[in-house]
């Protein structure tokens, strides 16, 4: 993956003309960040509409009610979600919409997981304004963009493909199964999961069996380890 100035690395992808980006959704629980990003991108690209959501649930509501935005900008750390769960959830609702993760942290494993989950790019919040605008311009013309310090080749071709396979497997889980998996990762026993989700313990067991089948593991421990490896709920 080639490097360009300003801490951004890019590779070619399906072309999406920038002029088609007129309506974006920013998902971030920091109002100042939302406002600053909205003003920066509106000024740079002449956006017609910028919507915002402070949680994953609010963003899902925006997408369900429509119309879909032309692009989504997502902070990984929200009040109700961590890790790539947010990426997977929003891509299910808006599969054709380019989604960019913007984060204060640049962790190589997280970047790999985010890109494997279907994001168009991963941008650091610390980028200077001109470089950030350049990054969005490249993504909105169809390129995949990652931080300059991220070494995609370092993960290896097999590693990247493995992460994509994991992301695809976890993306098949229903919202309720994802809730149960989250509680499994937190060490909750079936009885407590049943209580917290207000469902029968037998239903919990049925869901867990389905989860293990979908992600191809044999027990709860393996499910939790695989979720951790895929950075599904990670900070």
Describe this structure in words.
- This protein is an alpha/beta fold and 235 residues long.
- It contains ten helices and eight strands.
- A five-stranded parallel β-sheet has the order 4-3-5-6-7, sandwiched between helices. A three-stranded antiparallel β-sheet has the order 1-2-8, with helices on one face.
- Helix 7 packs across helix 9 and helix 7 packs across helix 10.
- The radius of gyration is 18 Å and the shape is globular.
- The N terminus is likely disordered.
Mean pLDDT across all residues, rounded? 87
What kind of assembly state do the chains in view correspond to? single chain
Which stretches are low in confidence, meaning pLDDT under 50 for 5 or more residues running?
1-16
**Helix and strand composition category:** alpha/beta
* Count of alpha and pi helical runs: 10
Euclidean distance between termini CA atoms: 26 Å
Give the biggest beta sheet: 5 strands, parallel
Helix content estimate: 40-55%
What is the topology, as strand order, of the major beta sheet? 4-3-5-6-7
Topology order in helix (H) and strand (E) letters:
EEEHEHEHEHEHEHHHHH
Task: Round the Cα radius of gyration to an integer and report it.
Answer: 18 Å
Broad shape: globular
Strand % is 5-15%
- Secondary structure: number of strands: 8
Pfam families: GerE (PF00196), Response_reg (PF00072)
Keywords: DNA-binding, Phosphoprotein
Modified residues (4-aspartylphosphate): 75
Domain Response regulatory: 23-140
């Amino acid at each position: 993956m080639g490097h360009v100035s300003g801490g951004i690395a890019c590779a070619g992808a399906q072309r999406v003309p920038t002029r088609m980006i007129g309506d974006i959704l920013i998902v971030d629980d920091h109002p100042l960040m939302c406002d600053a990003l909205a003003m920066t991108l509106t000024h740079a690209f002449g956006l017609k509409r910028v919507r915002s959501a402070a949680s994953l649930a609010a963003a899902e509501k925006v997408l369900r009610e429509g119309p879909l935005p032309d692009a989504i900008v997502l902070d990984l750390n929200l009040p109700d979600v961590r890790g790539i769960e947010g990426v997977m959830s929003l891509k299910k609702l808006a599969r054709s919409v380019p989604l960019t993760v913007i984060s204060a942290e640049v962790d190589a494993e997280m970047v790999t997981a985010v890109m494997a989950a279907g994001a168009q790019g991963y941008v650091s919040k610390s980028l200077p304004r001109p470089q950030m605008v350049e990054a969005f311009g490249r993504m909105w013309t169809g390129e995949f963009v990652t931080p300059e310090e991220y070494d995609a080749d370092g993960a290896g071709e097999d590693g990247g493909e493995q992460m994509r396979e994991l992301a695809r497997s976890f993306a098949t889980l229903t919202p309720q199964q994802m809730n149960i998996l989250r509680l499994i990762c937190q060490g909750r026993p079936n009885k407590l999961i049943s209580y917290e989700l207000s469902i029968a313990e037998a239903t919990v067991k049925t869901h867990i069996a389905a989860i293990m089948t979908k992600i191809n593991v044999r027990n709860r421990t393996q499910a939790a380890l695989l979720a951790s490896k895929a950075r599904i709920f990670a900070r």
